[in-house]
Amino acid sequence: MSMRNSTVRAVNRLTARWAAAHGGDAGTVFTAAGVWPLLAPLADGAAGPARAELAEALGIPAERAAGAARELLAALDGVRGLRSATALWTRADLPLEPAWLERLAPGSHGTLSGTAEAGHKALDAWADRRTGGLVKHMPVTLTEGPDGTRLVLASALTLKTKWVRPFFEWPREPSEGPWSGRSLQMLHRTTALPDRAAVAEGPHGAVTLLEVVGDTGVDVHLLLGEAGAGPGGVLTTGVEAVTRARPVTPASLLPEGRPGPGLTVTRELALTPEPRLVVETPAFEVRAEHDLLRRARLFGLEAACDNSRGHFPGVGSEPLAVGSARQSAMARFRAEGFEAAAVTAVGMAVGCAAPPRLRYRTRRVEVSFDRPFGFLAVHRTSRLVLAAGWVSDPLPYARPPEKTLEEKLREEEEAWAEEE
Predict the structure, then answer these.
(1) Contact 29, 19 (CB under 8 A)
(2) Radius of gyration from C-alpha coordinates of the chain
(3) Under 8 Å CB-to-CB from 176, ≥6 apart: which residues?
(4) Are 338 and 153 spatial neighbours (Cβ–Cβ below 8 Å)?
(5) Pick from 34, 23, 22, 37: which is nearest to 67 by CA?
(6) Among 87, 248, 379, 419, which residue has the fewest nearby CB atoms (within 10 Å)?
(7) DSSP H stretches of helix in 84-169
(8) Same domain (yes/no): 89, 211
(9) Nearest one of 98, 154, 128 to 347, comparing CA atoms
(10) CA–CA–CA angle 171, 175, 176 (5° rounding)
(11) Are both 138 and 69 inside the same structural domain?
C-alpha cells in the first residue's frame, strides 16, 4: 500500500514543528511518525476544544484521522527494514464504544489488570519485544485507584538498514571545535557520486546535506549548519530540503572553495575521470526521553489534559482525560548501517533513532562532520521522515585500530580501482 501524500505531509509538518521547538544544544532523537498514529484515534474519539486542537496538530480533519492512521500504519508495514505496531490496553471495567474500536488500526487490545507493577511489566515486555530490545521500557506511568490509569494507547516503530556502501572506521581527534582533543570513532567513505552532498539555504543560514543510502528504501540524511547554528533551525531546514519543500544545490553545481558548512570543493589528480565525494563523520548513538505534555499545544493535547471534565465521548461513556504522553527513542549510526526505535505511549485517566600514475584532473568534494549536526531518516519513495535528531556527543573510539590509516586508505583505493 502506498502512503497518501496528504498524510505524509501532515506527519512531516509535525516533525518540522517538533524540531523547531527543540531547545538547547543537547543531543536528541524523536519520531513524529510514532506520535501521529496515536493522536489520530484520540482526535476521532474527542469532542469540543480537544477535538479541534488535535485536528490542528494532526493537520487533517478529525473525522478523517482514524482512517488516515490506519492507512499510514498499513503502508509502514510495507517498508523493508521497518517494523511498526500499535496496541491498546484498558481496564476491564472501562466501557468502550464499539465503533471507535473498529476504526482503530489492527493491533492488540489487552487488559490492564492487577497492580501498577504488574501492568508495567506487561507493557515493558511489549515495548522490548516490538523493538527487538532497542527500547526496553514503556514510557508511561500507571496509577492505581478510582482516578488511576484507565487506558493506554501505544505505538512502537523500529528501523534497521544497512548501507549500500559501508564506511571505513578509524580514530581521529578533531583539531578544532567542541570535539577537539577527543579520540572519536570516525567513519570515512569515498564514492563517485558527489551529488549525494548538497547545500540548502535556510532562514537560519546554509545547511550542508549528505545522503547516506540504505538497502531497504530508507536513507539517512546528515545535516551540518553554520558554526553555532542550533538544532531547531538546522533540522527544520533539513526537513524542508529532504521533503523537497526547499530547493537544494547539488555539489556538482557548487563553486570551488567552501560553498557550504563543512564542505570543500577542489580539483585533484586522480586515477579515473569520475568526480569524488569524500565523507568523514563520527559514529553516534543517541537516546532521548520526551514528555509530550511539556509541549501539549504542539501535539494538540492542551485541552485534553484538563481533568475537570471528559474529552473523549467517542471513546467511551466514562469521562476521560489525558494523564500522560511520552516517547522513548534511540538512534545508532555505525560503519555498517543505521537503526532507530521509538515507543510512544498515551495514558488516560478518569477526567483527570604506492599508487599508480595519476592521469586525470577531477572534481573532489569533501564533507566533514566535525561539530554537532542533525540527522533525518527518510523513506525514499514517500519522503516520510521516520526519525529526526541531533548529535552533540559522538561515540569515542574504544579500541586500538587494527590497521593504520595508510593501510585503510590503500585498501579503499584498491576497492575503488576494482569498482572501476
Answers:
(1) no
(2) 23
(3) 370
(4) no
(5) 37
(6) 419
(7) 98-103, 116-130
(8) no
(9) 154
(10) 130
(11) yes
CA atoms within 13 A on the CB side of 264: 9
How far is 342 from 142, CA to CA, in rounded Å? 19
pLDDT of amino acid 419: 47
What are the residues whose beta carbons fall under 8 Å from the beta carbon of 2, sequence distance 6 or more? Answer: 75, 381, 382
Together in a domain, 214 and 254 = yes
The three cell numbers of residue 129 are 519485544
Rounded to 5 degrees, φ, ψ at 303 are -65, -35
Q: What is the pLDDT of residues 88-127, one digit of tens each?
A: 999 888 899 999 999 988 878 888 887 888 889 999 999 9
Tell me: do 186 and 38 sit in the same domain.
Answer: no
pLDDT digits (tens, 9 = 90+) for 21-71: 987 788 999 999 999 999 999 999 999 999 999 999 999 999 999 999 999
Q: What distance in Å separates the CA atoms of residue 241 and residue 386, rounded to the nearest whole number?
A: 15
- What is the distance between the alpha carbons of residues 129 and 66, in angstroms, rounded to a whole number? 25
The Cα 57–Cα 348 span in angstroms is: 19
For residue 110, report the phi and psi dihedrals to the nearest 5 degrees: -110, 180
